User: Fold this.
Amino acid sequence: MSKADYKYEFIIKGHISKRHLTEFDKLNLIHLVGGNTKLLGRIIDQARLYSIINKFSDLGLELLMVKREDIGGDEN
Assistant:
C-alpha cells in the first residue's frame, strides 16, 4: 500500500529567517513582496503535515494559508 503524495504551500505572516528554515527541512522558502513567507514542499502523510503545522505554532509563526495539490501516489 503506497501513500498519497501531495505538494503543500504554506503562507506565513512576515518574513521568517533562514534559521527557522532548518526546522522545516525539505521545504523551499520564498520571501514574498508583501512581507510574508511562502514555504513549498512535498508531504507524504498527515503525520508530517501536522508536525509542520505544530512547529509553526511552537515557533510563534502565524499561519495564514495552506494549499494542497495532488502530485500522484495512491490514497489507499
